[in-house]
Amino acid sequence: MELVRKLRQRAADGDPVRVGIVGCGQMGSGLAHAVSNVTGMTVAAIADIDPQRALDAFASLGRERGEVVVARSASEAEDALRRNAPVATDDALLLTRLEGVEANVEATGVPDVGARVAHASIESHKPVVMLNLEADTTVGAYLSRMARSSGSIYTVASGDEPGVLKMLYEQAVLMGFDVVCLGKGKNNRIDYAATAESCAAEAASKGMNPKMLASFVDGTKTMVEMAAVANATGLVPDVPGMHGPKAELDELASTFVPHDAGGLFSGPGRVDYSTGRIAPGVFAIVHADDARIRKDMKFITKADGPYYLHFRPYHLCDLETPQSVAEAVLLGEVTVAPEAMHADVVCVAKRDIKKGQAVGGIGGADIYGRVYARAQARREALVPIGIAAGGVATRDIKRGECMTEHNFAPDQSTFVYRLRRMQEACFESPGTGDGRPSASREIGEPACCN
After folding, report:
1. Taking the complete model, does pTM exceed 0.85, yes or no?
2. 399 vs 349: CA distance, rounded Å
3. DSSP code, position 159
4. What is the pLDDT of residue 429?
5. Residues 68, 93 contacting (CB under 8 angstroms)
C-alpha cells in the first residue's frame, strides 16, 4: 500500500491530509492526537455540540487560542483553512461542506448525528470514516451502497473491533481457510441494569461520558460491534445476544465451533464474544480440510486442527483510525463496510415502561441492545435500537421485553428513522428478511439514494 511513503510525500509537498473530526469526547479527542502525530496528516477542523471541547482539544495539540477560528459559516471556515488556521464549530454538517477538509471521522456515538454527517459527506463526495457503530449498524448498509454508487467512500474505522476482525477475516479467506467464527474479548460480564448514574464514578475516573460507559457495561456496545462484523462478512449471531461464554485463549478453538465438533454453535459462520481474559484481543476460528494445509499448520503452529485460532491480542480504537483515513483519501479504499443487513441490534427494555412513556437513548436508563440475525428480527418486528431514542411505548412493556412494532412507536421525525425506512425499501422485498437488495429496486435509483 505504501501509505507511509505517500503521506511523507504529502508532508514534503506542504499538503498534509486535512481531517475533520465530528465529536470530541474520549474517542474524538484521542483521535486528534493520533492524527497530529502522523507525518502527512493534520486536524483541520473539529465539530462538537460544545465548541469549548474542540478548543480544548486544539489547545492540547499546542495550538494557541488565538489561532483557532470558531466558525459559524462555510465561508468563515474556508477562509480560516486557507490560512492554515484550525476550525472549531458546533455545526457538524459544516464539516461536510468544506473544501479544505478531505475526510471526516464521525465519533459522536449518536445514531441520528452519525447518519446525518455520513449522508452529507457522501453527497459532498467526501470520504467519511465511522467510529459511530451505532449509526453504522442502523443505516450503514444504505450509506455504504449510496457511497459506492456515487464514487464516494463510506467506511468503518480500523482499530475498532469490526475493522480488525475484517482484517483477520480477509487474511483467513486469502489463505484458503473457512471462517467459522469471528469474536472479541469482553472484559466484564454484562450488567443489563447499568445506567449513566450507576457508571458515573467509574466514568469520571476514566474521563468518559457516563452514558458511553453504560453502553459498554450493559452490553449494547458489544452487540453493536459484532452486528457490524456480521453485516460486513455475512457471519451471523448463533442465538439472540450471542453466547458470550467465559473461555481462555487455549479454549477458544474448541469452544467457538459447531456442535458436532464439541462447541457451542448450531453451524459455522458465526459472530460471538468471550468474557475470558482475552480482552482487548479479537479472534478468528478457522477451519481447513485440505491435508497439505493441515500439515503446514502442524509444522508452523503445532496445532492439530482442523480448527485453528487466529488471534490478535489488541485493538487500539481511535489510535488506528488514521490508517482508514489514509486508505480512503490516498487509495480510495474501504476498511470495512456493510455488504447487506445480516444482523440487527434491537431494543430491549431496561426497566418497566408504561404506555405513553418516551424512552431515552443508548446508555440511558430505559433501553439496551441485543443482536439478532436480521431475518429473525424482521419476522418478530423488532425495533432497531438506533431509531429508539425519543420513541413512545404504545403498550406497557416489561423489563427484559423487546420493543416491537406492536408495542412501540419510534420518533418518525428523526433523520436516522427516515434513512432506515429508505434502507428497508432498497434492501428488502416484502416477505423476505435476508437483508439483501430488493430485486425490484436498485440502490442507485433516486427513491433509494437521493
Report:
1. yes
2. 5
3. T
4. 53
5. no
